[in-house]
Amino acid sequence: MSSIDRRSFLVASAGTIASAGAAASVSTVAGMSLASAACAAPTGQREGVSNLQIPSYKPIALDHLKGGLEGISANQLEQHAKLYNGYVARTNALIEKTTRMVAEGKHLNDQKAPVPEYAELKRRMGWEFNGMVLHEYYFQNLKKGSGDIPAGSPLAKVAEREFGSVQNWWGELMATAKMPGVGWVICCQDPNSGRLFNQWVSMHEEGHVGGFRVILALDLWEHAFIGDYQPTERGKYLAAFEKNVDWEAAGKRLL
Length: 255
Ligand SMILES: [Fe+2]
Fold this sequence. Notes:
Blueprint: E1 9-10, E2 16-17, E3 22-23, E4 26-29, E5 32-35, E6 56-57, H1 74-103, H2 116-140, H3 154-163, H4 166-177, E7 183-189, E8 196-202, E9 213-219, H5 234-243, H6 247-252
Antiparallel strand pairs: 1-6, 2-3, 4-5, 7-8, 7-9
Helix pairs in contact: 1-2, 3-4
The protein binds fe (ii) ion.
């Protein structure tokens, strides 16, 4: 089981989506736990809407990281965890709100077009959902006392194959991470070719390639390091990040 699979579910959905009468189930898609019933298509049945049960995501535990990372303080991690918890809460709220609107038939106007509130909630989903998921990849590819990437490890082998050397791969990732702006650098793997790409993702949701696997996530929002460094000291944060990468966890995400 990959590390991202550890996100636990508060299965408030253990029962059913009452209006549809279908069993709520938890499935695994692309390494993430998803409650398929939460995404069920509207049935047109409005009975039992008051009994609608919608599963929620729970924040992952981060206490094991506090106080032991090199160059990333416990206070910095604590503040980051609070911000991450906000993404989890808002993702759950968005899913619940939009699911209820559909179940109650309030997502469409008289012309069967999406009402503005529903449309804007749907637009917001990519921001909040990616804000939650990317933070989980990031936190789960951190580890106390990790050290250098082990020579011959799965990730080192793929990096050498794709970039000629681990140094080339990491150098390209760091160069991408020094680009102006806020967002993420995500080392991704194309599931079709197995190739690695260091992708720049603006904000949380812009720049992803559909279906690419997240191998290593690097948070480049200033909130990720201003507890320890000045906003102009991203380089110091990047050096600290390198010292705390859980190379084994990242390697396990490879195909
Ligand atoms: Fe962050």
